[in-house]
Batch of 3 targets.
Target 1
Amino acid sequence: MPRWLLIVLIVLNVTVLLGQIWPAFAPPFARAISITFLAMSLAAFAWLLGRAKRR
C-alpha cells in the first residue's frame, strides 16, 4: 500500500476519532470526513484483499 495513502487514512481516522470523543469540537464538515474515511478504507481493504488473492 502506498505510504501517502496510509498517511491520509491515519489523518482522517484521527479526525473522526476526535469528533467522536469531543463532539463539540468536531468541524462542520465532520460528516463528509467520516464518509470519505469509510469509503477510502473500504477501497484500501478491497485493494489489499485483491492483491493477496493474486499471490
Note: The chain has a mean pLDDT of 85.
Target 2
Amino acid sequence: MEHYKQIHIWNLPTDKIYIKFNKGFREGFFNLVHQKFGNFNLAGEFLQIKRPDSLLARNWRNGTNCCPLDLMIKLANEIEMPLEELENGIEEIRYKTNIGKRGGSSGKPIKNPKLPVIVNEDFAEILGHICGDGTISRPNPNKGIFFKYTNSELALIESFQALMRNIFGDVEPTIIKRNGEGYTRENYVLQYPSIVSLFVLNVFDYKTGIDMELPSFIFNMNLNAKARFLRAMFDDESCVQVKRKAILFGLKPINPLLGVIKLLNEFGIKTGNIHKYSNGAYNKFGVADKNSVIKFRVLIGFKHPEKSKKLNRIMEVGWRFERYCNYKAKERIIEIIKMNRYLEVSQISKILKRQNGTIQKHLEDLRRDGKLVSHKAQRRINNTNSFPNVWHIKEVENG
C-alpha cells in the first residue's frame, strides 16, 4: 500500500490560520483547558490575550468566533492533547491577512475540511491543471493568495470543482464568467480562497512565467498519479490534429515542457523535436508516432470531451501508411531512387504516400548533403512538352 505525503494544519503558517471546532470537540477541549488552569482568566494570561472572560470563555468556547490556530496548538500542548486529535475536531478553517485589532480580512473557509490533506492522485491532477490553465498569485499580500483555474470547457470546470471537494472538503469557489469581444467561447474562472493556496504551496513552490517548474515530487509518484497529472496538463495545453494524426503540446517556459517530455517517456511515449513559435516565446512539441499516440490514448487520455473525440477519430481512421522520422524517410528515398535510377517528385510521393512538398524538402536536404542531384528531363504528355526535375544518385568522382 502506497504511503502518501500528508499536509497537517501545523505545517501551515499557524499565526494566520483561524479555525472553528465542531460542537462535541469544542466543549470537551475547553473543559480540559478550564480544568488545567482553574479558570479562563489564567488561561488568557497564559495565551497573553485581552478580555479572556469574553473572548475565550464565551466567543471561542461557544463557537461564535474563529480561534487562532497557533493559540489552540499552544493550549493543546499544555493540556497534553495530541495535535492529531485537535486536527480531527476542526469543522472550519480559513486564512486571514492583514491581521489587526479587529482580526483582519479573510477569504471563504473550507468547511468540514478533510484533514490532513492527502497528496494523492487527485492532488496530482489538480497540480497538472495549476501548471496548465491555473495559477497561484500574490498581487497584494493584504488581499491573500489567489488560487485560480480558467477554462472554456464546462466539463473540465465541473471536474475541477469535484476534485477540489475530494481533496479539501466543502470549499466553494467564486465563479466569474468572461465573454464578449476577444472571446470565441465563454470562459469560466474559478477563484478559491487563500487557505487552499497555503496547502498547495506547502508542497509545491509554484512560480509564474518563465520561472515555472513542475512539482519535483511528481517524478517520484506512482504511474497513475503521473498519468493524471499529464492528462490535466494536456487537457489544458494541447490540441489534437486528426489529419496529421498528432497531439501537439505547448508552453512558454521551456523547463516544464522538458519535464512533461520526461514523464511521457516513462510511459514509452516518444515526442518530436521542440519548435519555437511567436519569435521564440512559445515552445511546442508533438506526439505523432503511431505507437505513442495509441499509448497516450490508453495510458493517459483526455477528460476534455472534444479532444477525446478527436483522439478517438484518429484511432477510427487508423494509419494508412507507416510514419517515418526524418532520417528514415530520407533513407527510403535513396533506396527507391537506387532501384529506379531516375524519379520525379510526384513518382516518389506516390510510392511513399506522402505530399509532394514533404518529398521535395527531403530531396533538397539530400542534395545539400551531396547524396542526390537533379536535372531537367523532357516529357511529352497529351502533345505537350514538360520539363520536370528528375532525381538520381550523385556519382562519386574518382580522384
Note: The first strand starts at residue 5 and ends at 7.
Target 3
Amino acid sequence: MADTSSITDKIERKKVKRAARKAAAPKGPRTGARGENKAKIKKAARGQTKR
C-alpha cells in the first residue's frame, strides 16, 4: 500500500489509499479456514464467553 504518513489531509489520504488498493494485484484464495490459527478451547464453563 502507498505510504501516506506524509499526507495530513484525511480526505486526500483516503483517496491515495483507495487508488493503491485498486492498483494492487488481487489476493489469492485462502489456503485454510480463516480461524484455523486461533487458539482453541476444550470446554468453556456454561454461560461464559468462549474467547
Note: DSSP finds one helix and no strands in the chain.
